[in-house]
Design brief:
The structure is a homodimer.
Chain A: E1 5-7, E2 23-29, E3 32-38, E4 41-45, E5 50-54, H1 60-68, E6 70-75, H2 81-89, H3 98-101, E7 106-109, E8 112-117, E9 122-129, H4 132-138, E10 140-151, E11 155-156, E12 159-160, E13 172-176, E14 179-188, H5 193-196
Antiparallel strand pairs in A: 1-10, 2-3, 2-6, 4-5, 5-10, 6-9, 7-8, 9-10, 11-12, 13-14
């Protein structure tokens, strides 16, 4: 595992997704790994941390996840713009070399039989909370986060540091047709201690 | 209605949320309007457009929405940073002057008995698709988008123009503790026509 990767306090794991980045979803079953991009993933709860992700029935990644009930949500970086686009447009079903062709490199984390995508800024290992009705009707999956890690060069002590980190580590926010935005400027609201009491 | 506000093609309405902005949720029932902030809202489907939003049981806005089954999701701007923070931290239950104190101005759109927040960049009028189990268990609501509008100075012809618009119109992406990021730089992946065929 890369020396920059460190576990994230589970109480702060929701912050890895709170700003709405486009993510990569990965799964593993029976010797097959797949990775797809998803703009439609969102935090759902603080503690234990939960998230939602929309997984189209046509995706091979969903088929893998349905076999094991486990998956990884990871936050790709500006350096992975093309990779993110490519794994979101090519299917493993039509191109068995998808991951290699998309320049995806995988790594392992001890204790998790899941494929983690190297070069991302954050990783959330998840367990599907089975909700068959919404999975079938809306392609909507609920995951409980069972492990969280981040690249300490851009997320440390429970906070993103996009404003100080290498710009190549910024998160991606997909629109359509290959068009993305990177995350931008940091800004703070005035916090009234009385209001938050 | 502000002269800059124009309807958005329903097939492109998902793009208003695709980049994961923090949103404002508003509801109206029996003469009461409320507005709250939500970082946990996400696109769910293209056509008809659907979305998800997490509404805590403690919020007054949820109580209004449960009465009518309708609500508005709107995308606040950098100019509304403090407003967004304030409506997300104060409850109408404890402060009846919440909206006034947060400098929220509402406007109407013909045909919708809902409070729209002035100064946002996009508005999605929604109808709750009742899913009582996930509403109760996860505070997760599914909405079908029944009307969509945007400020043409920042979203036109189905595309965001953050890179050319007034920076005050950028979307906000909340982390925690009053800390936000604005959306940043536009970037494009190389789109292979053969791959997308």
């Amino acid at each position: 595992m890369d020396s920059h990767i460190a576990p994230v306090d589970m109480k702060k794991a929701y912050r890895l997704l709170n700003h709405g980045p486009t993510v990569l979803v990965s799964g593993r079953y029976d010797g097959v790994d797949d990775v797809m991009a998803a703009a439609w993933s969102c935090a759902l709860d603080f503690s234990p941390p939960k998230l939602t992700v929309v997984l189209d029935k046509a995706t091979r990644t969903r088929a893998l996840i349905e076999q094991t009930g486990t998956f990884v949500i990871q936050v790709p970086t500006v350096a992975q713009l093309q990779l993110t686009h490519d794994v979101g447009t090519v299917s493993l079903a039509s191109d068995p070399d998808k991951l290699q062709r998309s320049a995806v490199k995988l790594f392992d984390i001890d204790g998790y039989d899941l494929p983690f995508v190297a070069g991302c800024s954050a990783w959330l290992a998840c367990k599907v909370i089975p909700e068959p009705h919404i999975q079938q009707t809306y392609d909507l999956f609920i995951g409980e986060v069972v492990g969280a890690w981040a690249d300490t060069r851009v997320f440390e002590n429970g906070h993103w540091n996009f404003e100080r980190a290498d710009p190549a580590l910024r998160s991606l926010h997909y629109i359509a047709g290959g068009q993305f935005y990177a995350i931008g400027e940091a800004m703070s609201a005035v916090v009234d201690p009385a209001v938050n009491a």
